[in-house]
Amino acid sequence: MKIGFVGLGIMGRPMALNLQKAGHALFVPERASLTQEVRAAATVLPDAAAVAREAEVVILIVPDTPDVEAALFGAGGVAEGLSPGKLVIDMSSISPTATQAFAKRINEKGCDYLDAPVSGGEVGAKQASLTIMVGGPQAAFDRALPLFQAMGKNVTLVGEANGAGQTTKVANQIIVALNIEAVAEALTFAAKAGADPAKVREALMGGFAASRVLEVHGKRMIDRTFEPGFRIRLHQKDLNLALQSGRELGVPLPNTASAQQLFSACVAMGGADWDHSGMVQALERLAGTS
Q1: Active site residue 169
Q2: pTM reported for the whole predicted model
Q3: What is the per-residue pLDDT across 138-154, written as a single tens digit (0 to 9) for each?
Q4: Residue 210's CB: how many other CB atoms inside 10 A?
Q5: First to last CA, the chain
Q6: Torsion-angle region of residue 130: left (phi > 0), alpha (psi -120 to 50) or beta?
Q7: Which of 114, 194, 197, 249 could be disulfide-bonded to 136 (CB atoms 3.0-4.6 Å)?
Q8: Catalytic option among 2, 104, 126, 169
Q9: What digits encode the pLDDT tens for the residues 8-58?
Q10: Rg of the chain over CA atoms, in angstroms?
């Protein structure tokens, strides 16, 4: 297929390159930040509207709801280049409510829309092993499935209503944040008690407490490697969506709120761009240990 790709950051760049490696033609908008690898793999066009004119399918992955709105409907945005029959796939993590409104505007142009946020971080993006949660019509999903399979391993159509994918991603981010908090608390407790947190983690990996977060993020905490795979400020944004949606639905999310406060403490410490495993540093400061 001819694929337009908007948003070539930590996640988008390897995802786009995996599509090109799978044999799809790649079109991207000009940006000073484009790497030579992307320039060699793709046709670079002046803006997102030009990309949409050339492509059969346009994929976006940008940081937040306003960024998606600007990429779609701003000057030189995707919507300007759409014609009936094209497919727009938003793989960002944004508001489920805004997603429904964006989908309606795209549908009015005779185009299909899927919301398909991802989980798996930079490692999953590079290894094409992402989990992809999709909301939208079955026919559009079927059309997009070969693209999703080039970027991920666990691909699920959660519901045929737009916004279902984003709701699933919000739930995912609640679970991930609370698991990071649990691991950070456990390892901080172990260190304060005088145990070797590396040995504690090794022991726990063989029991019922084992998890992907303990495996990957627990190691980051011990090795002090907080270069971002997924930035704290982005996880903060996702938890804001969770807490806002919880208020709208009347669903209490007490532990989500505590995780958000720990992320806020990290931001106050200058850690907005730390990997989200860096939450442990806020707990360490509170405990007076490391």
Answers
A1: yes
A2: 0.87
A3: 999 999 999 999 999 99
A4: 12
A5: 51
A6: beta
A7: 114
A8: 169
A9: 998 999 999 999 999 999 999 999 999 999 999 999 999 999 999 999 999
A10: 20
